[in-house]
Fold this sequence. Notes:
Layout: H1 2-21, H2 25-36, H3 54-57, H4 62-75
Amino acid sequence: xxxxxxxxxxxxxxxxxxxxxxxxxxxxxxxxxxxxxxxxxxxxxxxxxxxxxxxxxxxxxxxxxxxxxxxxxxxxxxxxxxxxxxxx
Length: 88
């Protein structure tokens, strides 16, 4: 059993070392540079886009969240919370 574990561990180490030296970091870096330079804007042409503005997608502040949470609690009915029994 120990020999099998050692063979599997050795294979995983060999895979990691091989992948470390044969990756595509140079290609990714080149693509990122071209995106930042604006060379890939053509990809956006013909897309539908999102029906949201940047402000719609921006998360609310903690103060707003807490304020809304307080008003939601006031609007809830005051029924006691029921917990379903477990089958243990």
